[in-house]
Amino acid sequence: MAKKFNPKMATGNDLLEGDVVYFSDGRWTRVIGEAELALSPEAEADLLGRASQFPNQVVGVYLTDVKLDDAGRAVPAHFREDFRMLGPSNRPEHGRAGQGA
Question: Rounded to two decimals, what is the model's pTM?
Answer without folding.
Answer: 0.75
